[in-house]
Amino acid sequence: MALILNIETATTVCSVALARDGVLLAYLDAEEENIHGSALTGFISDVLKSAGCQIGDLDAVAVSCGPGSYTGLRIGLATAKGICFGADIPLIAVETLESMAAGFILQNPLLVASNEIKKNLVAPMIDARREEVYTALYSEDGQLISPVAAVILDSKLFADYLCETSILCFGNGANKVSNVVELDQNIKVKNGFSCSAVHMITLSHEAHTQEKFCDLAYFEPHYLKEFYHPKAAIK
User: Fold this and answer.
1) What is the pTM of this model?
2) I want to staple 132 with a disulfide (CB 3.0 to 4.6 A). Which of 42, 128, 165, 217 is the partner?
3) The three-state (H, E, C) secondary structure of the chain, written as one string
């Protein structure tokens, strides 16, 4: 039996979920700017306590590895590595967009499968500043269709796919889509979705079963872009 702590800090959401063999035991979510540094360790302690568990009971720690917030990803990974080093347990990396897709499909099964004429694809989106998002396309069963990338939104968004599919956009970057694309039956924005460590549970359990572990010393988040600081842009 595998007890896995899941940590999600890739966006403004700070989230921790504890699961045993893919079954949720306890979780905490909070969405607030710059909350990760002050809240994450407390969330972990509270979730473990709620489930009647201790750090020493863990079999692995899974962390959302990006793309996303540079600072959030670093805090999440540093915390996960610290627990893994101290408890001598493996680290699991879960792609942020993949877990978002898995969570959205689980929450919206009828919506995702509602198009009888064209296949639906889902497009998780994370805000990447200005008119840019981190995104990828996934099938109705969560399989990757187009690669994870930093995409500048324009009128040709997903043009290669729209003839044969309908696309559902969601996440904290999806509200930008309506600014550059005329929404119709083939591309829609679904509001109200937030990242959560709960969405990582199935993926981290599968990774643990397949022993897909990371190198604790060298693994880094998938930033996709270099760190940006507003003051650095002022000349």
Assistant:
1) 0.92
2) 128
3) CCEEEEEECCCCEEEEEEEECCEEEEEEEEECCCCHHHHHHHHHHHHHHHCCCCHHHCCEEEEECCCCCHHHHHHHHHHHHHHHHHHCCCEEEECHHHHHHHHHHHHCHHHHCCCCCCEEEEEEEEECCCCEEEEEEECCCCCEEEEEEEEECCCCCCCCCCCCEEEEEECCCHHHHHHHCCCECCEEECCCCCCCHHHHHHHHHHHHHCCCCCCCCCCCCCCCCCCCCHHHHCC
